[in-house]
Structure formats: C-alpha cells, structure tokens
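Worked example

This section walks through a single chain of length 81. The input is the sequence exactly as stored; nothing has been trimmed or padded.
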Amino acid sequence: MSSEGFLKEIQTIGEKFLLKLQKLPKAEPVEIVSFCIILFFIVTVLSLMTIACSCCCYRCCCNGGPDQRGRKIQIQPTAHV
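Given that input, the structure is written out below as tokens.
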C-alpha cells in the first residue's frame, strides 16, 4: 500500500468517525453505548501500548542497557546409583 493510499484510508476513517460523532446526539441508546464501548477499547489499547513501550524504553535507555539480573547457572543432572 502506497503512502497516498494509506493517507486516503486514514482520511476516510476520520470522516466516518466525525460523521458518527455528529449523529451521536440523535442516535438510539444502544448505538451510544456500543460507540462508547468501542471508544473505551481503543483508548485502553493505546494507553497500554504507550505504557509498555515507555517501560521498555526506560529499561533499555535509562539504565545503561538491557535488564541484566545476573548470570544464569546451568544445573547439571545428578547421577543416580
């Protein structure tokens, strides 16, 4: 998908979203509730992604490297007699 096609798709989605917002005061209660649930879901996903990325970047950038908790010791199996 070219960048022009992507921008056109984003613009179309934005126009549909604005149209929904304009029709929302006249909508039925079921439509209002479903719209709020979808909006809440989108906000939740975006905020969780932001938190996850900020935690990852903080750990990598601000502590001088990736999280190193120490060396892992390999345990050898014991011989049974």
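What to look for: The CA atoms of residues 33 and 39 lie 10 Å apart.
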